[in-house]
Structures are given as structure tokens and as C-alpha cells.
Batch of 4 targets.
Target 1
Amino acid sequence: MTRIIHIQADAPLKPAEGKPCNGCGVCCLVAPCPIGMLFSGKTRGVCSVLRWDAPQHRYVCGLLTEPESFVRPRWLAGAAARLARRMVAAGVGCDSDLALEDEAAAS
Ligand code: SF4
Ligand code: SF4
């Protein structure tokens, strides 16, 4: 199935599956992960807690970087971030086998 996603021009290229995650954002732009579905209220499309970190030129998970912006009551933010870190397997290799085609370059 082909999907069109809009991605920051200076986002890093998606690495191969199993390589270290570089914050390319592709997986989270296509569909939220299970915990992202809870916060986004949908199963497809860009995750609502995905954030672009311009200084670092990479996407970040808002549940990990600014949980207090999304979690209520706020005192639950720390626990939610820890849960998110485990569920999204932060720090491990890329688990996405999505293949990209650059439409802008192709046209
Ligand atoms: S898991 Fe893979 S596709 Fe998702 S942001 Fe990391 S590198 Fe990109
Ligand atoms: S890792 Fe974070 S930003 Fe990405 S889909 Fe999951 S909750 Fe959303």
C-alpha cells in the first residue's frame, strides 16, 4: 500500500530496519504506535504527539521529551514518559520496514 507523508526537508534519511533510530520520523508520520493511538485517537496518519526538533534536525516523541504537555493530571507525566519509553523501545534499533519513495525528487 502506498501512503503519502509530508516530512521535514532536513529530516534524516530513514535507516535500514535494525539500524539505530535516527529520528527520521517516518514510522510516526505513517501511523501512531500503540501508545500514540491512545493519545492521537486514531490508528493511521501522523501521531499527534510527534514533534519536530529543529535544532537537532530530527523528530522526537513528545511523550518522552515533553510529557507534561500531553498528560493530565501533570503529576502522571513522569510515569507516562517511563511507560512510553518502554513501549516505544526508545534507544533500540529501527523497527520499521517501510520503504520510501521521494515524490518531490521523482516529479
Ligand atoms: S524507528 Fe525507524 S522509522 Fe521510526 S523514527 Fe526511528 S529510524 Fe525512523
Ligand atoms: S513513538 Fe511517540 S510520536 Fe511516535 S507514534 Fe509512538 S507516541 Fe507517537
Target 2
Amino acid sequence: MQDVECVEFLQWALPRLHRRWPGFRKVRRTACKRVSRRIQELKLSGTRTYREFLGRNPGEWSILDSLLPITISSFYRDKAVFDFLGQTVLGEIAANAAAREDTLRAWSIGCASGEEPYTLMLAWRLGAQASFPGLDLRILATDVDATVLDRARAACYSISSLGQLPATWREQAFTRDTDRYCLRAEFRTGIDFCLQDIRLALPPEMFHLILCRNLVFTYFDESTQRQILERLFTRLLSGGALIIGHREVLPPGTTGLAPWPGAERLGIYARG
Ligand SMILES: C[S@@+](CC[C@H](N)C(=O)[O-])C[C@H]1O[C@@H](n2cnc3c(N)ncnc32)[C@H](O)[C@@H]1O
């Protein structure tokens, strides 16, 4: 499919699925390939006939929706964010939690193949935990895509996924299996991977830390962002931290969250 045809189709379809075209602009080739494959499967001639098909078959919209998630991730993605998280945020939220309980709870939303929650676990086990020997970290990691969750549970990665991870962490935490690096079992415990659509469901528990990076505030429209944010508030403890993508912005007029002092440009917020 020509780029111009795909762009025109995405600009028409995305708002109907409460998604934002600007979020897809740079990654559209992935979305276009999937849409093109779907059009071929249906033996249709192009996006014009696919639009007509969508008009006659409302159930096709959820199939189109399932073709859109972008699953790019990597360990220690956005180095400055994880540096600050490990050096400052984890210590502060752990100190608060340790005064009352024995578990620090974090939720990684849109966890992809596990790179984000495993990075958090490494930051804890190889860093902050030493100051809180009585405190365990448990991470709930959710994603809408069952395939990436299978990869997350397998926990083996190519070297390119680990490029930003501190080399000493890589040596301590991974074993090499030909061209793959597999995370040692001891760093996989404490993380539950669950299939969950952030638009439709919420976990029952409350969290000290929520990571919602490079998903809601990139790919969903403002009204969906507001709805999800409101629901995240019901799961984030007072004094806890919300981390969004460092290039993402919260919807205008958001209240109840303040940039974490010293992390104003990193997308790290404290809940008052
Ligand atoms: C671009 S990746 C970001 C991964 C990681 N958070 C990071 O910043 O590196 C977005 C992830 O969100 C997942 N996702 C997309 N829509 C979702 C939804 N409605 N609910 C939960 N996860 C979703 C995708 O499957 C994908 O794995």
C-alpha cells in the first residue's frame, strides 16, 4: 500500500477508535503493514473498499483496533528517567512504604515484552533495595497483546534490547544463550504478567508507583486519556509516583499531580 493511501486511511480511522494520528505518524509503517495484510486477508482491493467493509461490519472495528498497538520497547529506555527513578524516586517511595508495610507495589501499564518491569526490578534489586532489607517489590505488568506477554515470561532478549542497560547489571542479571540474553530466575520473581486492556479494566490493588509510558498519552485521544487518568488516580496511593513517557504531556488542566522535584522534564509526577 502506498504511504499516502495509508496515511489518509489512518487519519480517517484513528479518531473513530479514539486514537491520535500524531502518535502514529512516526510508526505508521508498522500499522500500515498490518492494515494491508488485513485487507489482503479479506480479499479487498484497498482502503476504499475496506472503509466500506467497516461500514457494513461494525465488528471489524475491534479487529482493526487490535492491529494498532505498537510494541517497541527496550531495557532502561530513556536513561535519564531510570537514573532518576533509581537514585531518587524509588528511595523516597520505599521509605514511605517501609514505615507502614512490607511490600512496595508497582504497576507497569503497556509492559510490552517485559523490558520496562524487568528494568524496574533490576533498579530495585541491584540498587535501592539494599537500604530497605525488609521491603519486597512486587510488580504487576499488564499489556493488551498476548504475544508480547509470552515473550515477557520467556525473558530472553537480543543484545540490541539491552543496549542502554548498565553493563554491570547486564553481567550480573543475564546469562548468554548463543545470540540471546536471558534474565536469571532470581530477577524474574515478584513480577506478574497479565493480559489487560487499560481502557476496560483495572487491577483491584493500590500502587506506590505506576508507569504508563509511551502508550496512553501518545496513542489515545484526549478524552480517553482523561478517562484513563481518572481511573489511574483510583489506584495510585497518596505520595506515590506516576511516570509517563518523557516526551508525553498530561491533558491540560490535570490536577492532583505535581512534577517530581528535579524531574520536571522526565515525565515523573508525585501524587499529592
Ligand atoms: C510502545 S509500547 C511501550 C512499552 C513500554 N511502556 C515502554 O515505554 O518502553 C506500548 C505497549 O502498550 C501496549 N498497549 C497498547 N494498547 C494497550 C491497551 N489498550 N491496554 C494495555 N496495553 C496496551 C502495547 O501492546 C505495547 O506493548
Target 3
Amino acid sequence: MAIDALSRGLSVVLLEKSDFGKGTSSRSTKLLHGGVRYLAQGDIRLVYEALSERGNLLKAAPHLTSVKRFVIPVYSLLDRLKYTAGLKIYDLMSGKLRIGRSRFTDREDTIKRLPGIKQEGLDGGVIYHDGQFDDTRMLIALARTCADMGGCLLNYCGVTDLRKDGDGKVAGLSAKDEISGAEIEVKAKMVVNATGVFADQILQMDKPGAAKSIRPSQGIHLVFDTDFLGGEDALMIPETSDGRVLFAVPWLGKLVVGTTDTLRESPDTDPRALEEEVDFVLKTAGEYLAKKPKRSDVRSVFAGLRPLAAPKEGRTMTKEISRSHRVIVSDSHLVSIVGGKWTTFRKMGEDTVKAFAEVTGTQLPEVSRPIDRLHGYTLEKDGHFDAYGSDAAEIKAMAAQKPEWAEKLHPNHPYLAAEVVWAVRNEMAVNVEDVLSRRTRLLILDARAALEAAPKVAELMAAELGENGTWVEDRLKEFAKTATAHTITPDEKN
Ligand SMILES: Cc1cc2nc3c(=O)[nH]c(=O)nc-3n(C[C@H](O)[C@H](O)[C@H](O)COP(=O)(O)OP(=O)(O)OC[C@H]3O[C@@H](n4cnc5c(N)ncnc54)[C@H](O)[C@@H]3O)c2cc1C
């Protein structure tokens, strides 16, 4: 949305209470998808919209995205016909932006693609394609694109109140620097509430007692070593016992398996996986994998809250609530964007910025620069450095400059000390968690390794930020708590 507004010549200040991506945006399945399940639910408009966004994003950020092949295992002729036909429609709906051809493949080829699949009763598989991305690296690239375009971005700066003019219209806001405690005020022609599951907190600032607009629905993922599935292709289980889909997707050298759909009463900055959710994912994955994953195999667990737009009356199951977004313009002219998906963020931004005309009574300038190339755009691929795009050369130069910056943060993972220094200098990383969870993805991939790497990261950050030993100790204590939430205790049975 900030990029859309900037491209129309508007000025933008973006305030984030915590770190960029601390909320749901770091906890997704990392798919750019039309949503095969939404197709089955008949949400055709959403699927069209998302497929178009998927296609354009793959072009705008080749360094952060890739095409992933998915295989749906089939065990009956009916399933074979149903999924082959459904996915042909999915292909057709992508139009010119189609990224692969769906087709049925036989049992032998399915096993070759998914070596870890349970083979009993397997007839074959249906292959289809979707996009895959690194959610927080995409977010950092978006933030840097905004900054390149003249936007002002502040992390660790939360909105505390809305300022109104004599007519009761929103004319700005108050915010607090969460690190120094300083208060700031921002005057604005339009204030947008894009706070995901926290949207109701801002709506309450505007109008105490306002109706709830959000229904948080929790989804968790478990992360395993890739050998549970083997190969490069992803597994899609189209119908779990609770009527959802489950993915097992190779991503950054690990296997990400999820997700769930559990209604939660209130938003939470650090949602934790529930025991029953962990059991459900383990059990369902175990029904399809030859080697059943156990609790002790889990490298990391992460939970996120879907900011689903509150459903119309009569719809209570979260899986029935549409993933479409909604722009709400309050009487006070506060503009809120609720619901939506990562994949459709550009369209969500465009629809939100269009409210500018209604709120200010002035004509909205046409877009002069749509999102066609994100910061770091490059076509070159280079392992985990891909996500930095053209910035990778500078990071590698830093590593070449000082031998200690060329050292790995953890022996089992590719991240270098130079990336920590880079993140502090260029990507507004302030805390150990910012680096280990959202600039690199170590916490998401392997929580124990992240804990082991934390002291090195804290020392490197302290040197960059001019902080002392107490700062290091405090940050490490905080990080240990966070990392614990990403681990699960193995039980005696396994
Ligand atoms: C389990 C799961 C899997 C998903 N998988 C996919 C997927 O594969 N593909 C896809 O397209 N979508 C996926 N989604 C959906 C997608 O992740 C979300 O729609 C998206 O990340 C929501 O982004 P957001 O900016 O609205 O919310 P958030 O990312 O939560 O951002 C809101 C931010 O607002 C900040 N904030 C709160 N209060 C204030 C305040 N007072 N002042 C300033 N800032 C404040 C918070 O700190 C937070 O960082 C998934 C969602 C979940 C839960």
C-alpha cells in the first residue's frame, strides 16, 4: 500500500509497533497461490485475483520467488478425475500468467518425486504449480523499495492514539518509540489501519465499543529435515480429517508442514502452537509419509494468526470465512484494511489507497510506477544469498573484508556473520530476534541452532550499535524466551 501511495506522488510514513514482519507476515506457508482450496469452495473471484497477483509477483521479484511443483497423491480413480479436472481449471484461470501445466502422473513417477510418500494403495499423483517465496525477505525488499521511493519507515514505533480535527475526522496520530520511549505526532490527510489481527485495537481508538472486524484464526507449521519427503517437489494433502488441506513443502533446506485453522479469541504478538495442533499435524503427516514424524523430529514450530475479516452471520467455521480483503472507511475517515492474503498484498494496497479520494475529497493521482521491480531485483541465483538479490554482492564483499565476518553463525546453516552486520546497517534490525527470525530465517528453520547462534549474533549487533555487555545479556534472555516458543518437548513415547 505504501508503494502504491508513493507511486502516486503521495508522502508516506509507515509505523510498525514491533519489527517488520513480527506479526503474521513472518508465519505464513510461504506460498504465492491462487488457493486450490478456495477454488473447491467456489471463491472464484479470489482465485482469479490471487493467480494474477502470483504471476506478476514472480516477475517483479525473481530473487525472492520461485515456481514450486506440488504433487497431490491419489488413491482412487474418482480422486484422479476430480483433482486433474480441478487443477486444469486452476491452470486456465491463470491465463497468460500460467506457470506450469497440471497433469496426472503414474505411481512410479509419483514415488520418484515424493520418495517419502506412503506407497500402500497409491495410484499416482496430480502435479500442479504454485509460487513460493520467503515472506520476511519479501517484506524487507518491500520496505527498502518504499525507502528507495522516499517513504519514511519506522519499526518499533507503535500508534497509541488517533488525532482528530474539529469535525471529528482523523487528521493524524500519536505514536511511541518503543525503544527510547519518545512520543511522536504525525499529521496526515489519511490514516490507514493495516495492523492485521490488531485492527480492532485501532478501531477502538477511533470509536470505543466499535464492532469487531477481525476473527483471528491460528495456523501452525512444524519444520522437519527434508528427508521425510525427499526430492524437490512439495506434497499437498487435499482433504484432512477437519476438511482442510495440509502442505509439506521443501523450503530453504527444510520441510515446512502445515497448517491448522483454530479460532482464537484475541490477537497475540507471540502466538504459540497448541498441543492439539501439533498432534494434528504430526498425525496427518504420518498418515501420508512412510517414516512417521515424531515430536523429537521437529526442528522448529511457528504459529500465526490469520486476520480473517469477521464472517457474515451464520458462518462460524473459520475455514468457511473468505480470505478476501475488505476496506472499511469509518465515519471518522479512518481507513482500515482487513482480511486478505500475502499473495494479494499489492491489490489490497491499491484498493486501500483508492479510499484517498473519498477521505480527502481530492482526486487520486494515477499510478506512475506500479510494482514492477522490487528492491534487489536480479535474475542471478546464488543459494541462500538469492533473497538479497543484487545486495548480495555487497554482503559478500563485507565477508571478504574481515575474516570474522566470513564466519558462519552456525556450522549447520549457511548464514554468515556479515549478514548480521548488514541487517543492522541496512535493514533496521534492532534485536537478536529481528536477525535470527526475520532477516535470516534460522529461528524458523531450526530453533535450537538459532539459540546456539544467538550469543555470536548479540555480540556482533552490540559492536555495531555501540551497546555493552548488559545489553547483550538482556537481549539473550529475551531471545531464549522467544526461541523456547519455537521448540516442542519430545514426549516419552517417542
Ligand atoms: C498459518 C498461516 C499461513 C499462511 N500462509 C499464507 C500463504 O502461504 N500465502 C498467502 O498468500 N497468505 C498466507 N497467509 C496469510 C498472510 O500471512 C496474512 O494475510 C498476512 O501476512 C497478513 O499481513 P498483515 O500485514 O495484515 O498482518 P501482520 O503481518 O500481522 O502485520 C500487522 C502488524 O501491525 C503491527 N501493529 C499492531 N498494532 C500496532 C500499532 N498500534 N501501531 C503500529 N503497528 C501495529 C503488528 O506489530 C504487526 O507486525 C497465512 C496466514 C497464516 C496465519
Target 4
Amino acid sequence: MLTARQNELLTRVGSDTPMHGLLKRYWQPALLSSDVGERGCDPVRFSFLGEPYIAFRDAAGQVGVFAENCCHRGSSLALARAEGDGIRCIFHGWKFAADGTLLDTPNVADETFKQRFRGTAFPVREAADLVWVYFGSASEPPPFREYEYMNVPSSHRLIMRMKLDCNWLQVMEGGLDSSHVGILHAEFAKSFEARDASLPEGLQAQAQVYSTDYAPRIDVRDTEFGFHYAALRDAGDGRNVHARITAYVFPNTNMIPPNMFVIHYVPYDDTHTAQIVTYWDKERPVDRERTLRVLGLDQPGVWIDDHMEQSPDNRWLQDRAKMRAGSWSGLIGLGQEDTAVNVSQGPILDRTKETLVPSDVACIHVRKLLLHELEHGDPAAPFAIQPPRTSTIQALEVKIPRDADWTRSVPGNAVADAVGVAG
Ligand code: FES
Ligand SMILES: [Fe+2]
């Protein structure tokens, strides 16, 4: 349980809040590449942390991201002309290249002016069909973290963005909550499809284990990037445990086992969140239709233009008749189930009214890490500076002897004795 002040600190992301400053210190997947369009496209508006921005792609393919309001006198650059090598504000004609260089200022006689000023452009990198932006104010952005999904052919990758009408933190906490997997997703865990050997390994859930042990022991260990936690369940053979090891990458990313889902939680504002699920398969191309079906995202009305249609007004699309006929949740698929429970927690979950239990340890820990950074961190320094390299962060499902140390299953990930706060 948190105090009201702590809950505000963790959830509010507007421009005058500490969380706003924290999240801006990291590269963020603000857009899909497809949002921006082809070379020479018109500018598009978008929001991040309650602030408005625009993006465009110039004739050379470079994406430019700017504060929406022109740095001259504040007209919206969403109105700007697309001119190939940049965009031109229609108010007084200032023209900006994608990197912020001022190319033309027709209402300024001094020719040297445009060498002395720049537009408010932000550093941009495109990777894995996502547009990553550094919105912070440091002169040098932090190193760019590469994930394994960025290094497979695009046919082996599926990027799914779900827009949810609720605060970002409760969505991310859902991804750090292993004890719901066998309960909320009971039908998936027991389904034929989940055990279908032709599905990628990661979707063949350890169905029986999830279905027979609903109260896993959760063990959390801090790492250089955030933390790992293991949900330890009895493997049913008297000797082993099943360890479901999830990675939390500070501040707003989870890696869900087994190593094929990375989820970024991008707050548009306090109560609107993009959940960007990256799913990949190193061995073979991803069957898009089938994956969407398994996740329940192929249902009409569920996922329209990447916005989840579930709301209190339609009782999150729950089918009561289906429940009476044996369905656990009355919802279809993992994506619909997760969205229903997250959005139904309210626009911003009131964490002063919770009753937390031992299986909530990972949620408690992520709050501790974030609060510690918000209250005591160095606002100029990223939590964990990573060199630009292919990520070795792992999330695994393994069967290990009951007395074995599960952290040895993720040897590439240094487990820190004291990063942030312990326990
Ligand atoms: S407001 Fe954009 S050029 Fe004047
Ligand atoms: Fe879930």
C-alpha cells in the first residue's frame, strides 16, 4: 500500500512532475515507423508525457521530431508544409531540417541569424520499425539500448501497439505479476493452442504448472538494468521447481519469458498509455494471423486501429453467457484479458486501497526502485548507463532443482548486490 503522495509521484507524468523528468532521461519508442509515413510525408501530431510533438520524414528518409509549437511564435508545426529537405512553418515561413537546422527565415533580414538558432528538434533513431526519441535536455543522449528483437529480419518480428485508456504504471505492473497468469489466463494455459508444438516455443506456456500452482513464491534480485524476478512453482515431480524469470528494465520496459516478448509502456499522458509489445522468433518468420488469434487480438471490435475498444461502458467486452458455459473470464485471449483488468482498475489505480500479498512482491519492488530514483536519484544521470550493444537481458522459463540458485539460469545478467534499494 502506498500513501496518496507516493501514488501521485509514481503515476503523474505531466510537465511539472518528477516522473516526467525521469522518463525523459531515456530513449523512448514514441511512434511506430508507419505512423510517420513515406519520405517527404506530411507532419503528424503525437503526445508524450502530456506534451505535444510533431514528426515527419524528409526526402532522404530521416525522421525529424519537434515540439509541436514553432520556436518563433508558437504556431503548430502540424500545419507546416512538407518540402522534402525539411518542413516550413506556414506562419512566417521558417524552414527546419530534420535535425533542427534552420534552413530559411524569410522574415529575418540578417543572413547570419539562421546559423545562430536552431529549431526544437529531438535526437531520433529508428530501430525495428519503431521511432525512438530522446526527449531529455542533456547535450548528449544516453547510450541507445539494443534489444535482440531489433536484430532479426522484420519477417521474424511482430510489433503490436495497444492504446489503453489508463495510467501507464498499472499496465506495466500487470506485466510484473506472474501469479495472475494461471488464473486470469486459465483458458489459454489449458488450451490446445497453448500446447501446440507448431507454435513458437514461447507461446507453448508451461500450462500444467501454471494451472496447478496459483501462489508462486516470488524472489526478486536487483540487476545492473533494473531487476529480475523468479516466480517459483512446484514442478510436480517432488524434486524440481519451475522458475518463470521476468526482467524489468528501468524505467518502463519488461521482458516476459521466454525471451520473446519485450514490452515498452509509453505514457501519452496521465491516463492514456501505449503498450508496445514486440514479439519475435529467431528461428522462423512469425505467423502474424495466428499470433494475433492466440492473443485474442483478431476479434472484431477488440482492437481497432491499435486502440483497445474495451471500456466500462461495454463491460470490457465480457461475455457472461460464455462464462456460464464454462469460460473463466468471458473474454477472448491474453490481450483482451490483460486490457480488461488493467483498464478496469480505473484511470489511475488508487494504490492507497490495495491489500498486497507475498505474490505482489515484484510490483512492490518496482515501486520502490522508481520512488527511490524520484526522491533520491541524480536527475542528470540515467539509472543504469548501458554501453550501446546488443542486449543480453534474458527472461526465461526453466526447470531447476528445488535448492538450486535460479539466478544462475541468467548468467549473462549481472545481479547487483545493491542497485537502488534492496528487498
Ligand atoms: S510561428 Fe513559425 S515561423 Fe513564425
Ligand atoms: Fe497477463
